[in-house]
């Protein structure tokens, strides 16, 4: 965006080797000339105070309204001319003074070094650079100014329409180039005005881009051939890729391990309707899988042709995990209700079996038959115990909790494994010597661990290694927020691992159902 000077009457810092001119229509000029590099010119329209009354110790830029002696405080367009030819300076001054659309304040310096110094002060809105500057040239000054952070438009003045120089100037960042042999007042004014308008538009784009970087969502733009052309700060944070690493790369090669079928559907939808909305499974730079809520919008050129696709992705991985856990909790609640009804029916079936086995033992003396009845009774009691656990689960009743040492529980399971599992399975244990004690139901913990060990045994048909480990861990608030049933505090992690065939991806998500 263009910067304008302070009101003319407030300027008093004019360098001794700088010529400054305030220009307005129909000026009456008073020139005080001392040498080719020092000249001050204060112009005044008709009906102004005499010049002698305006002069101070330091030259000031003072512009007056043609209707009277009241100073005008409308902003000027500050122009710096860097040209080693005083005649060119006078011509430029006269061309600007002929303009009736804008008010200009022209400052002239004659050397490369002084021009670079003045540009570094950032006091001007537009810079006019002559191509020939003694030992240097305007292209060198242009490049050095931009390298030092100059953002104001720079216009290069060339002689005799040197097309090669003109092209180099535009590539180097010049706002425009003008042939001095063809230069006219309207052309110069239009070039300056267009340069300032382009600068304002570019500044607006930069501000909008800055707003995109403030957004926490990942915002990217890709061409119709999937080539990324824009990548905001939110995308850098979400995916781990810096903008410089992804610009020019193919989106589907970076964000997907394998392009899902949804992408083809999304491309067809955005081409047909101009937009698409859905969820996508993607991966980050470090291979982490994430789920994003993706919104696509088709961007068209002024002719109405498809140009690119604007994509806004919101990370909903944590949200989906919480939803999955919530659905799992609801499913378990429904199963508990169903299990409660079944358990009551099983109790009704087991009660007469247990009662009959006990009565028959009183009437039968044969030891073989008594042993069979005892087996029936024991199994009926075991079934009744399982029914009791189901009822406790259905009613939400916790088992008998006591303080127990998990290491002792693992030792019992280890003994069972060594006695009953195939010899082709090698057992290994890794238990923290300072393992904390826990409060829990020993029977239920034993049952869970034993079932896991049996599943591990079944996965190692040809033998392998079964490992039981137990370690202390402290869950922090970040982990607790990711899991509905987790609370911050100390825990014990018990791991059952095997070297078998593993769990297929198809049923991996069902292991807790």
The rounded distance between the terminal residues' Cα atoms is: 61 Å
Question: Please, what is the average pLDDT?
Answer: 79
Could you estimate the helical fraction of the residues in percent? Answer: 40-55%
Shape: rod-shaped
Strand segment tally: 20
CATH superfamily membership of the largest domain: Response regulator
Structural class: alpha/beta
Specify the CATH architecture of the largest domain. 3-Layer(aba) Sandwich
Task: Please give the order of strands in the largest beta sheet.
Answer: 2-3-1-5-4-6-9-10
What fraction of residues sit in β-strands? 15-25%
What's the total helix number?
A: 15
Q: Which spans have pLDDT < 50 for at least 5 consecutive residues?
A: 1-16, 24-74
CATH-defined fold name of the largest domain: Rossmann fold
User: In the CATH hierarchy, what is the class of the largest domain?
Assistant: Alpha Beta
């Amino acid at each position: 965006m263009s910067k304008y000077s302070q009101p003319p009457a407030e300027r008093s810092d004019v360098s001794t080797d700088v010529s400054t001119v305030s220009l307005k229509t129909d000026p009456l000029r008073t020139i005080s000339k001392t040498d080719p590099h020092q000249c001050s010119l204060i112009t005044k329209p008709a009906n102004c105070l005499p010049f002698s009354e305006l002069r101070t110790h330091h030259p000031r830029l003072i512009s007056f309204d043609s209707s009277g002696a009241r100073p005008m405080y409308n902003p000027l367009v500050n122009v710096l001319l860097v040209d080693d030819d005083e005649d060119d300076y006078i011509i430029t001054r006269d061309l600007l003074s002929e303009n009736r659309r804008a008010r200009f304040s022209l400052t002239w310096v004659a050397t490369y070094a002084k021009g670079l110094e003045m540009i570094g002060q950032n006091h001007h809105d537009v810079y006019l650079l002559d191509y020939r500057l003694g030992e240097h040239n305007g292209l060198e000054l242009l490049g050095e100014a931009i390298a030092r952070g100059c953002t104001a438009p720079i216009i290069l003045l060339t002689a005799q329409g040197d097309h090669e120089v003109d092209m180099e100037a535009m590539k180097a960042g010049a706002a425009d180039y003008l042939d001095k042999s063809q230069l006219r007042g309207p052309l110069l004014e239009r070039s300056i005005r267009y340069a300032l308008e382009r600068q304002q538009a570019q500044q607006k784009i930069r501000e909008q881009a800055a707003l995109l970087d403030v957004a926490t969502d990942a915002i990217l733009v890709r061409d119709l051939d999937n080539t990324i052309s824009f990548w905001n700060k939110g995308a850098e944070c979400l995916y781990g890729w810096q903008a410089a690493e992804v610009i020019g790369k193919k989106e589907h090669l970076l964000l997907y391990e394998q392009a899902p079928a949804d992408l083809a559907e999304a491309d067809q939808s955005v081409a047909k309707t101009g937009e698409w909305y859905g969820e996508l499974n993607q991966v980050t730079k470090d291979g982490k899988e994430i789920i994003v809520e993706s919104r696509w919008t088709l961007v068209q050129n002024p002719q109405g042709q498809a140009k690119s696709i604007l994509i806004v992705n919101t990370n909903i991985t944590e949200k989906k995990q919480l939803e999955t856990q919530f659905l799992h909790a609801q499913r378990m609640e429904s199963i508990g209700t169903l299990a409660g009804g079944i358990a009551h029916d099983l109790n009704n079936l087991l009660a007469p079996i247990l009662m009959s086995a006990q009565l028959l033992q009183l009437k039968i003396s044969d030891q073989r038959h008594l042993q069979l009845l005892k087996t029936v009774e024991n199994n009926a009691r075991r079934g009744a115990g399982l029914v009791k656990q189901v009822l406790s689960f259905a009613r939400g009743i916790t088992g008998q909790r006591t303080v127990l040492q998990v290491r002792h529980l693992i030792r019992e399971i280890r003994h069972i494994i060594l006695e009953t599992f195939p010899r082709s399975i090698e057992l290994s244990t890794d238990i923290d010597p300072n393992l904390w004690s826990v409060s829990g139901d020993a029977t239920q913990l034993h049952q869970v661990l034993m079932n896991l060990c049996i599943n591990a045994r079944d996965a190692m048909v040809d033998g392998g290694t079964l490992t039981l480990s137990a370690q202390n861990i402290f869950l922090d608030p970040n982990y607790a927020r990711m899991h509905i049933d987790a609370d911050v505090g100390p825990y014990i992690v018990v791991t059952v691992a095997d070297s078998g065939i593993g769990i297929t991806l198809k049923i991996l998500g069902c292991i807790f159902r």
